[in-house]
Amino acid sequence: MNFRYSEIKMAFDFVSSGLQGENIAYVSKEDGEIYYYSVTLGLDETRGHDVHSSCFIAVPHRNSLDIDRELAFDFVDEHLPEHYTAVRDYFADEETAESRFRNVLEANGLLEEWNKYREATIEKFLREWCSQRNIELEKEK
Q: pTM for the complete prediction?
């Protein structure tokens, strides 16, 4: 079964929109569907499906990857090396890290570039994640 990248990305965004474990999405290699579950939203598309079988693969949450922190360090190292130490210190406080980092980006006119960099990296990660799990993606047109 082939999936569109946009479907995988939407599932990743859904899972990552809440706290870890709050929203879950399963890719079914059996029927080519993605099933969503959320306690918060009262959503359960998994009913009647054995999501614990090997045909179902849980989509990861962004936090389980520590993707934002490492990406931020890589981006700052490349584009704002003079702010590297300060940004590293920002991430010591998880509650304020993102807003403080965003302020540095805005002050240096790099917010749009950061968003593109982040999206490209997430896409690369998700495509690799699919490949490692033998989830086939449709060819881009």
A: 0.85
- Domain residue limits, the chain: 2-61, 66-119
Phi and psi, residue 42, nearest 5°: 65, 35
Number of neighbours of residue 127 by Cβ within 10 angstroms: 15
Q: What is the pLDDT of residues 49-81, one digit of tens each?
A: 999 999 999 999 988 776 778 889 999 999 999
Tokens of 113: 């570039």
Q: What Å distances lie between residue 89 and 36, 101, 120, CA to CA?
A: 37, 10, 25
Sequence-distant (6+) residues with CB within 8 A of 92 are: none
* Cα–Cα distance list, 129 to 35, 59, 123 (Å): 18, 9, 10
Taken as a whole, the chain contains a residue count of: 141
List residues bridging with 1 in a β-sheet: none
Q: 125: Cβ–Cβ under 8 A, 6 or more apart, which residues?
A: 65, 67
Is 72 within 8 Å of 111 (Cβ atoms)? no
